[in-house]
Amino acid sequence: MKIFESHTIKEIDNATCEAQNIDSLQLMERAANAVACEIITRFFPTQRIVVIAGPGNNGGDALAVARILYEQGYKKVEVFLFNVIGKLSHDCEEERKKLITMDGIDFTEVKRDFQPPYLSENDVVVDGMFGCGLNKQLQGGFMMLARYINDSGAYVVSIDLPSGLFGEWNADVNRRDVVHADLTLSFQTPKLSFFFSENSDVLGEWKLLDIDLDDSMMKEIPTNYLLVEAKNVRPLLKPRKLFTGKRDYGSVLLFSGSIGMMGAAVLSARACLRSGAGLVTVHSARIGMPVVQTAVPEAMFEPDRNENYITDMGVHHTHQAVVAGPGIGTNDRTVDALEELLKTTKSPLVLDADALNCIARRPQLLTNLPSYTIITPHIGEFDRLFGEHNNSEDRLKKAIEMAKYHNIIIVLKGHYTATVRPTGRVYFNSTGNPGMATAGSGDVLTGVIAAFLAQGYRPEHAATLGVYIHGLAGDMAVKEIGEYGLVSSDIANYCGRAIRAIINRESPLF
Ligand SMILES: NC(=O)C1=CN([C@@H]2O[C@H](COP(=O)(O)OP(=O)(O)OC[C@H]3O[C@@H](n4cnc5c(N)ncnc54)[C@H](O)[C@@H]3O)[C@@H](O)[C@H]2O)[C@@H](O)CC1
Ligand SMILES: Nc1ncnc2c1ncn2[C@@H]1O[C@H](COP(=O)(O)OP(=O)(O)O)[C@@H](O)[C@H]1O
Ligand SMILES: [K+]
């Protein structure tokens, strides 16, 4: 699903009106109906609802929502329209005209002074002050109103965007002066700002409402930001042929584990096998042999000369994917071995965890990364590699710059993991849950991505597929085990079921 920038939304609206032979007011009614329906499913008609409308089309939506709710028997609807410069958008004006003809509705048009209504935690506020037309941070009365709503404890439903939040970049915005929604009801496609952790408290739960915007225009308008869903990954998954053997599904070599961190190798290997790789070989410290051979009997083991950590990353056989990182530590001799691997390997590479920390210790190694190497840093590893970042917007911008510059794929992990391709395109993931914030779940992800590389998928696809399937396996496991109890071996064990769910178009994915 494409994530559009706010300034392109008008274009999509216009194309929708033209293609469907409707006017913009009819589209507004459609949007308002969708919002009103959501409110109706959540609150009884006896609920007091305070509607705040701004001067633009976001305000027009809000006025229409107020009218529809009133028509549906919600008699405790109070409406405040902020018309402080004496100019409303055309459709907002039309909605105002419709509303004031309604008998008995409590309507106030604010032109100068404003006495805010009493609000408590028992009330619902519908926030239609500003949406994607916001052109500067809230100031003056609007800022005070946002703070007043936030302090009231009322349940806030924001239309399209919490007022004061921009659709894209908000690093300079003081979140205290932005309306804090409990529920954000946005239209058709998400905004980029939904994917940054700093906006999570402002957005509350967010939901997309289908208002049947024009598909062909949405296909046409370019964007560098996308959200990956089941329907996007399913066409990538290749069916298994009847007449095949394990060699058709590739061989993975995992440089993983060291004394005290053999579990990382176990988890990566298990996830790799559960995601369809034909053969998996773990190369690790000698001490790890009994652990790996017992915990993952399906994997082969290649002992390093060293007892406790890896000192040699020579690749002696043909492997369709090579992984380095999980649990390898950052011993100087391991860094030397990694340097040798980067300079010599011809196989597609996945680098994770300590491999990235090794590179951070010897930053010139970044220039040795083969094209299309997949690196999978979490925020800490990313900042160690590329410098400290104060916020997730700056970090994403840096990831885009680095993916282009080094011609690599960067999987920046977190909630909504962002996979950044060498083109600079960003694919946000839609699966995963907080139960996955547990030791070893990154090791599992590395194994899943490597499995797809080994099976012959292009690195960009292996990364996006791996991230989606890893998150989905976590979502399926959490249903049985719960967020507190989920451990990373559960995620590994569910990978196969996650892949099957996508192939079989299981509900609720499709
Ligand atoms: N495809 C869609 O997403 C649809 C969107 N619609 C609605 O249309 C909205 C966008 O409407 P508009 O483009 O009119 O934009 P807005 O209603 O968000 O705001 C624009 C108005 O607010 C003023 N303004 C902006 N920032 C301000 C600030 N900081 N202080 C004071 N005034 C400020 C502008 O001068 C302008 O008058 C969406 O957010 C959505 O609610 C729907 O009506 C129809 C379909
Ligand atoms: N709150 C969350 N929502 C979605 N996914 C999460 C969440 N927390 C963690 N994850 C996922 O779990 C994995 C954690 O990886 P990482 O931090 O490297 O863990 P570890 O180092 O313990 O293996 C990442 O893929 C991340 O996207
Ligand atoms: K709003």
Automatic annotation (TrEMBL):
Taxonomy, superkingdom: Bacteria
Name assigned to this protein: NAD(P)H-hydrate dehydratase
Species in which this protein is naturally found: Lepagella muris
